[in-house]
């Protein structure tokens, strides 16, 4: 089994601590006994991606974001970070604008979402 040790010494740019994703990353490092070398914290994923693209830092981002980046390499880490779920909630029977309906349809079709209700 591959461990995260080979990337332990890399200098990183990570999301700032006010992001839930950062909390999951910090917990992962703690469980693996790793003290990350954090060079920069940022509150913008696009800024992090550009800094990594142009510099010599590494980052940890959700898989879906990592695979959409041109000219960057993603490396799977083992053990993997726990998967997180997201939900889209709205009040039953409430008015939904065309934009909110289009967004819900996009999400359900793009990510093969399982619907709890036929209200979409």
From TrEMBL:
Q: Name one GO biological process term.
A: regulation of DNA-templated transcription
Q: Which InterPro entries match?
A: HTH-type_LysR_regulators (IPR050950), LysR_subst-bd (IPR005119)
Alphabetized SUPFAM superfamilies for the sequence: Periplasmic binding protein-like II
Q: Which residues form the LysR substrate-binding domain?
A: 6-111
Q: According to the lineage, what is the superkingdom?
A: Bacteria
**GO cellular-component terms in the record?**
cytosol
User: Per the record, a Pfam family?
Assistant: LysR_substrate
Q: What Gene3D superfamilies does UniProt report for this protein, alphabetically? A: 3.40.190.290
This chain belongs to which protein, by name?
A: HTH-type transcriptional regulator CynR
């Amino acid at each position: 089994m591959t461990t995260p040790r080979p990337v332990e010494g890399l200098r990183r740019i990570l999301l700032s601590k006010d992001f839930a994703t950062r909390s999951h990353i910090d917990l992962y490092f703690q469980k693996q006994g790793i003290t990350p070398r954090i060079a920069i914290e940022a509150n913008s994923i696009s800024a992090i991606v550009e800094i990594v693209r142009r510099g010599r830092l590494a980052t940890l981002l959700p898989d879906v974001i990592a695979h959409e980046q041109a000219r960057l390499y993603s490396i799977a880490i083992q053990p993997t970070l726990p998967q997180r779920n997201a939900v889209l909630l709205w009040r039953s029977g409430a008015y939904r604008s065309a934009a909110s309906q289009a967004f819900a349809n996009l999400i359900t079709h793009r990510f093969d979402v399982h619907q709890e209700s036929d209200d979409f």
